[in-house]
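User: I'm designing a mutation panel for Glutamate racemase and want to avoid disrupting the core. Could you give me a predicted structure to guide residue selection? Please restate the sequence first so the numbering is unambiguous.

Assistant: Good idea. Sequence first, for numbering, then the predicted structure tokens:
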Amino acid sequence: MAVGIFDSGLGGLTVLGAIEKRLPQVPLVYFGDNAHAPYGVRTADDIYDLTTQATERLFDAGCDLVILACNTASAAALRRMQEGWVPKGKRVLGVFVPLIEALTERHWGDNSPPREVGVKHVALFATPATVRSRAFQRELAFRAIGVDVEAQACGGVVDAIEEGDLILAEALVRSHVDALKRKMPEPDAAILGCTHYPLMEEIFQDALGDNVRVFSQASLVAESLADYLDRRPEMVGPGTESLFLTTGNPRNVSNRATQFLRRKIEFIPA
């Protein structure tokens, strides 16, 4: 009864931690493509190829449902995967859905015409590839009107977090927020469009100011998954063992993951 979680690196561990708290009975198989991280600077075709390879490995591990806990993969590969690659009886879900549900205050299954929502000015912080894809703006436009989205590509932040250099990560976050505010001085809300970014949520909030509501993904994804499995319990796969898989150096990745989750994590080769 395992569920797969994929990320290009360690950022998806923020999602895994939230899902573990919300669904402690569900074994989780995590795949970190650390050897090829970060994805944010790769081409769409490259991201698609790497994401499908990782997802196939999670299917092999007994996961019928895989969450792309990577905004870059969700933006650049998910739609293409769902339209022509995902095998019958399997599901691959992204992490934009819960964010847009929360932002627009409407259920994903609500197919009524787009309508005005409470927020008018939204700051989107994401990787360069996610920003280039405009996937967030496209999905938001299906559900809301009158929302101005200003995107800021946060180059370097994922690399700094993956290397454990949180001092550099903080400096980069503050620089990117300053750049965003020069384009949109007074956002109503901010989207942290990368699963690495919740680790820097307090820094984003401090740099943006208390009057800006910051939407972070981990808890939203966990709650959305719980609702999905209530409605589709057959999508819990046959796997019974929790695993941590990586394409990188297992010892190095395990050490950094242990720091991320503040408990012992042992990765094995994918």
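For picking mutation sites, this is relevant: The domain at 2-93+218-269 is CATH 3.40.50.1860 (Rossmann fold). The chain is about 45% helix and 20% strand.
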